[in-house]
């Protein structure tokens, strides 16, 4: 019996969830960075994972889609459409003429929710991998 596909699927899920945690942590770390008048500054990111059918697809076409893995998922990190947040801080040296400072549009509560959900999904993938491992070990015991 071959359990490698089960392991690959769980590993792909863990990789995606780890990417979500990494991006959410990056967003939180840059939540209080100032966006300049020219729009330059940190823009929140988000992880997009989509399933790609592997059957009948050539390696070159999968490679063109981006980072792929054994489970047929493509993961990309793209800028979010979240608008920058403006805070009235007239004493801040970075404030504009109206006394407003523009910060990166990071929603801290949403990012924390993303981290918690990714952690739970990661744990579920670990449980699935452990179940497949246990099944493989039980299969070895049948012959003994």
TrEMBL record:
Note the Pfam families from the entry: Flg_bbr_C
User: Mind listing the GO biological process terms from this record?
Assistant: bacterial-type flagellum-dependent swarming motility
Q: Name one GO cellular component term.
A: bacterial-type flagellum basal body, rod
Domain Flagellar basal-body/hook protein C-terminal intervals:
99-141
* Broad class of where this protein is predominantly found: other
Q: Where in the cell is it found?
A: Bacterial flagellum basal body
Which domain of life does this protein belong to?
Answer: Bacteria
Q: Entry's InterPro entries?
A: Flg_bb/hook_C_dom (IPR010930), FlgC (IPR006299)
What UniProt keywords are attached to this protein's entry? Bacterial flagellum, Cell projection, Cilium, Flagellum
Q: Which family does it belong to?
A: Belongs to the flagella basal body rod proteins family.
Q: Assembly state and interactors? A: The basal body constitutes a major portion of the flagellar organelle and consists of four rings (L,P,S, and M) mounted on a central rod. The rod consists of about 26 subunits of FlgG in the distal portion, and FlgB, FlgC and FlgF are thought to build up the proximal portion of the rod with about 6 subunits each.
Q: Please report the name of this protein according to its UniProt entry.
A: Flagellar basal-body rod protein FlgC
Question: What is the source species?
Answer: Duganella sacchari
């Amino acid at each position: 019996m071959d359990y490698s596909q089960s392991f690959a699927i769980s590993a792909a899920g863990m990789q995606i969830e780890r990417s979500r945690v990494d991006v959410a942590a990056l967003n939180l770390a840059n939540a209080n960075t100032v966006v300049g008048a020219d729009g330059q500054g940190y823009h929140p990111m988000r992880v997009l994972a989509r399933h790609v059918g592997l059957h009948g697809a050539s390696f070159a076409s999968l490679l063109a889609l981006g980072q792929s893995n054994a489970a047929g998922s493509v993961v990309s990190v793209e800028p979010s459409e979240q608008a920058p947040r403006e805070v009235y801080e007239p004493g801040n040296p970075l404030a504009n003429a109206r006394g407003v400072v523009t910060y990166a549009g990071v929603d801290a509560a949403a990012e924390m929710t993303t981290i918690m959900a990714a952690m739970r999904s990661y744990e579920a993938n670990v449980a699935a991998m452990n179940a497949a491992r246990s099944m493989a070990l039980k299969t070895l015991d049948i012959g003994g």
